[in-house]
Amino acid sequence: MEDPTTNTNVISDDRDLLILVDSSDEEIGELDKEACHNGSGKLHRAISVFIFNRDGDLLIQQRHAQKRLWGSSWSNSCCSHPRVGEETDVAARRRVAEELGLETHLTFLFKFEYRASYNELGTEHELCSVYAGQVDSEPFVNTNEIQAWEWVSSRELNRRIEQTPNDFTPWLRIEWARINDEFPEDLLCGFRRKP
Q: Is 156 a catalytic residue?
């Protein structure tokens, strides 16, 4: 019997074209996803989303084990890449719908560049735009992307990251630390949409 809380649509592929950028976020070309992550990585545009519920808990996901980079690691609610010609905020809303089956207003928080290598398998080198939003419903997860998910309190997530940091993706650790530092008031109310 099919699980009504999941879907299996294919929403990403190593042949997808990503947007190459410089450190100022100026577009300088395009390259397929696999090549972007080879070697020391090519800087490309990315999105990262943090979804909270009304209780202020954060939706975290365990990446599918078959993912090339950080498979089975825990990460934030959703992360991906804009398509060629697609604005980052549009890409963020699209990916939340495709990966989590959720729709919500997203607030842009910040943009940052990072590079992280995963064993000998490749490197993430991204200029990442980070967003937050709040929902009233449970996710309808894409099982090609996500192998597990849960709602977790900020305090509990901080405890887990401190105790077992390598269980989490490097971008989550960087972004979560900055959210805690720069948005403590919003974090307390789960980034509730302001009237």
A: no
